[in-house]
Design goal:
With 398 residues, this protein is an alpha/beta fold. A 9-stranded mixed sheet has the order 9-10-8-7-6-5-4-1-11, sandwiched between helices. Strands 12-13-14 form a 3-stranded antiparallel sheet. Strand 12 and strand 13 form a beta hairpin. It binds S-adenosylmethionine and iron/sulfur cluster. The site of S-adenosylmethionine has 16 residues, from strand 4, strand 6 and strand 7.
């Protein structure tokens, strides 16, 4: 059954979704100059000159065309161009991409369009050209401002290049994000403090700070570096929370901090269990229909993806989320938000009755991990500290 067959997705099922959630678009660009040793994203090494930019854009447009019947009539609320290193693409290529998206989908007025950019992959004029191409928000992957740590992380940029990139992002865009990681190989609390000081010095409207995780099938999994112990990592998290709050950034999600009005609309939609169409190599999507929630994955290898998409079938997997898995899938996202979720959204977005989670909610409440009103469930500070235990309460039984 072709994955873009709308009748197949509309057939009867056990769920009853009264309304469809907001829809976003994710576009994956899968190349980087060099593969970082900690990274398990779908990214492949390539020299900038060797990127098959036009062919890949052709494939993306073919992929999008094939997907349209599944999102017919729906408005897109945000677009995220991620990778990989999307800033390796030329501004003309990004312009073609955004124009192609606009020609095929109705974008909400003022729609957020984010592009991920790595320092050291552009010249000065490039950011402005991305803005002129239609990008409204840049996400700059800095990771650290410490040259020794950048080297240990296999990054191609230096501290100076990171600062220059951020200054340019601030000049060219009304809003931007800075990505940092902490608990880096050999990192001390004082060194983390220095990274935060430098990050705050550029006054980012949005900051994402991730605990470095050693992912399976990465170079670091094979040759594990010495990372800070658990107590130090906790102390680092406390320091991050304290210093970002002092700087007027609100921690609105486990790893995300923002000034008022600068939350990431695209990520908010993921966390609120909204829908997203994912196009590009290895892209994941989640789409709702009257009686089911579907997860899709595109072919992962870029060459295979281009072949498949241009031949009319980019989707490698297309599966219904099992009814029993929906509560946990919803909580994996929604409980990451400081403000939690509306009970109404749970009902609307899973198509399940509240009775499906009542006993887990009671247990969470007894342990002091959530608070609830008649309409809203909010994780407590303690619930945030024990987030994976809290989420596990919603796993299917048996
Ligand atoms: C999709 S990645 C790529 C962004 C961009 N290519 C870059 O590397 O700067 C988005 C962010 O995820 C974070 N990240 C990637 N691998 C990670 C890991 N193993 N542990 C924690 N954070 C990670 C990094 O902060 C990175 O900026
Ligand atoms: S630059 Fe980003 S996407 Fe590319 S390998 Fe490094 S972390 Fe992964």
């Amino acid at each position: 059954m072709p994955a873009h067959d709308i009748l197949h997705h509309m057939r009867p099922g056990t769920l009853q979704l009264a309304a469809l959630p907001p829809l976003s678009l994710y576009v994956h660009l899968p190349w980087c100059i060099r593969k970082c040793p900690y990274c398990d994203f779908n990214s492949h090494e390539s020299a900038q000159a060797d990127l098959p930019e036009q062919r890949y854009l052709d494939a993306l447009m073919a992929d999008l065309e094939q997907s349209l019947p599944l999102v017919w009539g729906r408005t897109v609320h945000s677009v995220f161009i991620g990778g990989g290193t999307p800033s390796l693409f030329s501004p003309q290529g990004i312009e073609r991409l955004i124009a192609g998206v606009r020609a095929r989908l109705r974008l909400e007025a003022g729609c957020e369009i984010t592009l991920e950019a790595n320092p050291g992959t552009f010249e000065r004029d490039r950011f402005r050209a991305f803005r002129d191409a239609g990008v409204t928000r840049l996400s700059v992957g800095v990771q650290s401002f410490n040259d020794a740590h950048l080297k240990a992380l296999g990054r191609v940029h230096s501290r100076a290049q990171a600062i220059a990139a951020l200054e340019e992002a601030a000049r060219s865009f009304d809003t931007f994000n800075l990505d940092l990681m902490y608990a880096l190989p050999g990192q001390t609390l004082a060194e983390l403090d220095a990274d935060i000081t430098q990050a705050l010095a550029v006054a980012p409207p949005h900051l994402s700070i991730y605990h470095l995780t050693i992912e399976p099938n990465t170079y670091f999994a094979k040759f594990p570096p010495q990372v800070p112990d658990e107590d130090t990592a906790y102390a680092m998290m406390d320091r991050i929370t304290e210093r970002t709050a002092q700087a007027g950034l609100q921690r609105y999600e486990v790893s995300a901090y923002a000034r008022d009005g600068h939350r990431c609309a695209h990520n908010m939609n993921y966390w609120q269990f909204g829908d997203y169409l994912g196009i590009g190599a290895g892209a994941h999507g989640k789409l709702s229909f009257a009686h089911r929630v579907v997860r899709q994955v595109r072919y992962r290898d870029p060459a295979r993806y281009m072949e498949q998409a241009l031949a009319g079938d980019a989707v490698a997997q297309d599966d219904d989320v099992a009814r029993a898995d929906l509560p946990f899938e919803f909580m994996l996202n929604a409980l990451r938000l400081r403000e939690g979720f509306a009970l109404q959204d749970f009902r609307e977005r899973t198509g399940l009755p509240l009775s499906a989670i009542e006993s887990a909610l009671q247990q969470a409440e007894q342990r002091g991990w959530i608070e609830r009103s008649l309409t809203q469930v909010t994780p407590t500070a303690r619930g945030f500290d024990f987030l994976s235990d809290l989420q596990s309460l919603f796993l299917p039984e048996g």
